[in-house]
């Protein structure tokens, strides 16, 4: 018999809605799984079982009254510790923010609650949500439940590890340079970076974000099925006027031509043989499903990655450089210094020219995606990295940065991107990235569904170490 923690979000919502399972039964099963497994991987760093059970009872009460609790009817969800959740610290992996208790839910948390989601806990992130690895002095290191020797990804590494280990069915993540897409890739899951403005964002515990984060950072779901991404997106994208960037665009499917572009090496980025084989496999799957796939060069991505770094560095130098020094966390200090060296001086003129160049790139990409509604490209140029590779040396950091070219570049243009799991290569998770036009997550989910249908759906992994 299938345990509730092995079920997808869609299966759980259907079972709770029809009375096959109660929301309390589902929550209790996941809380038990959390108690047994989380100590081995350290994915969830803030736990509140009584709150979770109270939320589950509310779902069951609504059903008993004949009411619809919402699309996430009883689904266990985790929240990343860099967004506000009322009554809990928005630490962002920082000792400096240990006592930064949120007085209000962020929009994405409020929307999950309104949709009937049951929040079980809050997940780990690297200090400042800065890296593609998840470790900090506040909460410790998160391990990948599929392989402790490789990163669970970052910065939403706790979210991806929690979903992969069956601690929740949906993990909330954020993405400014790959922090949803890469953790999903590293943990053998699916992860959706929505269009900028699709899911409302706001943290009342902090001042409004600077321009780089405003135009590049988004929230989104990490799950074990493509259908669950659509379910989660619909829930998370409910209106909230606290975000001035929010765009009330319907999330449902619309017609589109089944045309895809394949770019094996965007802008000449080095891509390993294993990753290229996975990309070619995805292209063949889509062809078999009726898609026309053409191998072409995509628009510039390297320039976009440079703009990402400039915008991020402008934000950081203006608003967080002092905090990085005061937190005194060695890994984030090392990464900050390497990124500063890579980016160079970011003054007013640099910032203004970066914003001007962004408009040109957005135009090029939108025209390209009008011809090819899906781009198939690497999530990363390499299979998931060994733990802590980025801080092992300056040379290793440079290698990681180059491999993550698409992770860094795509957020600049604001379009949606989907990381699709495609099994393992020599025991290491692998997958592909799909990119689509703004507000057309439905196209990416359709292509992702076709790829998923031709392979094995990601399953729960139980770590085999103490």
Automatic annotation (TrEMBL):
It comes from Ruegeria sp. PrR005. Residues 25-445 form the Amidase domain. This is Amidase family protein. One of its GO terms (cellular component) is endomembrane system.
């Amino acid at each position: 018999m299938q345990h509730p923690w092995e079920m997808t979000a869609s299966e759980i919502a259907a079972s709770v809605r029809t009375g096959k399972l109660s929301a309390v039964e589902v929550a209790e099963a996941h809380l038990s799984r959390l108690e047994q497994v989380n100590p081995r991987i350290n994915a969830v760093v803030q736990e509140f079982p009584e709150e979770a059970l109270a939320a589950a009872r509310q779902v069951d009460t609504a059903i008993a009254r004949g009411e619809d609790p919402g699309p996430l009817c009883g689904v266990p969800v985790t929240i990343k510790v860099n967004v506000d959740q009322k009554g809990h610290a928005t630490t962002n992996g920082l000792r400096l923010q240990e006592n930064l208790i949120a007085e209000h839910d962020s929009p994405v948390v409020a929307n999950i609650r309104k949709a009937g989601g049951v929040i079980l806990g809050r997940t780990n992130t690297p200090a400042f949500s800065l890296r593609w690895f998840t470790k900090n002095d506040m909460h410790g290191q998160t391990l990948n439940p599929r392989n402790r020797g490789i990163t669970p990804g970052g910065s939403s590494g706790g979210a991806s590890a929690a979903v992969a280990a069956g601690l929740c069915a949906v993990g909330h993540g954020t993405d400014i340079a790959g922090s949803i897409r890469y953790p999903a890739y590293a943990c053998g899951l699916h992860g959706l970076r929505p269009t900028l403005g699709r899911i409302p964002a706001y943290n009342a515990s902090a001042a409004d974000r600077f321009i780089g984060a405003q135009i590049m950072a988004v929230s989104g779901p990490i799950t074990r099925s493509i259908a669950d991404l659509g379910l989660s997106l619909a829930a998370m994208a409910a209106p909230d006027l606290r975000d001035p960037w929010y765009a009330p665009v319907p999330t449902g499917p619309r017609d589109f031509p089944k045309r895809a572009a394949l770019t094996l090496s965007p802008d000449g980025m080095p891509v390993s043989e294993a990753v290229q084989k996975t990309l070619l496999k995805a292209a063949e799957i889509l062809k078999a499903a009726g898609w026309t796939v053409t191998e072409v060069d995509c628009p510039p991505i390297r320039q976009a990655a440079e703009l990402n770094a400039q915008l991020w560095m402008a934000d950081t130098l203006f608003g967080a450089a002092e905090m990085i020094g005061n937190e005194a966390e060695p890994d984030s200090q090392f990464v900050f210094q390497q990124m500063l060296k890579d980016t160079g001086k970011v003054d007013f003129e640099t910032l203004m020219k970066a914003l001007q160049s962004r408009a040109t790139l957005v135009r090029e990409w939108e025209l390209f995606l009008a011809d090819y509604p899906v781009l198939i490209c690497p999530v990363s140029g390499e299979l998931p990295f060994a733990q802590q590779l980025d801080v092992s040396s300056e040379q290793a950091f440079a290698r990681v940065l180059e491999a993550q070219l698409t992770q860094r570049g795509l957020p600049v243009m604001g379009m949606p991107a989907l990381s699709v799991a495609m099994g393992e290569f020599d025991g290491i998770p692998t997958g592909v990235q799909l990119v689509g036009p703004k507000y057309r997550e439905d196209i990416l989910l359709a292509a992702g569904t076709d790829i998923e249908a031709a392979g094995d759906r990601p399953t729960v992994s139980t770590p085999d170490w103490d």
